[in-house]
From TrEMBL:
Keyword Lipid metabolism: no
NCBIfam families: nirD_assim_sml
Protein name: Assimilatory nitrite reductase
Residue span, Rieske domain: 7-102
UniProt keywords, alphabetically: 2Fe-2S, Iron, Iron-sulfur, Metal-binding, Nitrate assimilation, Oxidoreductase
Ubl conjugation in keyword set: no
Gene Ontology BP annotations: nitrate assimilation
GO molecular function: 2 iron, 2 sulfur cluster binding; metal ion binding; monooxygenase activity; nitrite reductase [NAD(P)H] activity; oxidoreductase activity, acting on paired donors, with incorporation or reduction of molecular oxygen
Length: 104
């Protein structure tokens, strides 16, 4: 099995808890989030409904709310929460020596 490609996307000290950061990886917008728990989560940055920039949304727990229409999206799975529907790609992240990597 081929191992995942890891791309450095930030230094951990560049991330602010509960404030998203937009990065571009292979021409794709990715929203990166440092949670209060210290976990780093990453999802495709565009909401599936109105293409809202999720990195500009409000973070609560392990969810982000789209800034355009308040859809709640799980940062672990990318699933839009009921009663809404849809999904964005969720990415695995890894922190090594203070550097944040996106696993593709």
């Amino acid at each position: 099995m081929k191992s995942a490609e890891k791309i450095k996307i930030a230094n951990l000290d560049e991330l602010v808890p509960l404030i998203g950061k937009k990065v571009i990886v292979n021409d794709t917008e990715v929203g990166v989030f440092l949670l209060e728990s210290g976990k780093v989560k990453a999802i495709h940055n565009l909401c599936p409904h109105k293409q809202g920039p999720l990195s500009e949304g409000t973070v609560s727990g392990e969810y982000v709310y789209c800034p355009l229409h308040d859809r709640k999206i799980d940062l672990n799975t990318g699933e839009v929460q009921a009663p809404d529907t849809g999904c964005v790609k969720a990415y695995e992240t890894e922190v090594v020596n203070g550097e944040v990597y996106l696993c593709l």
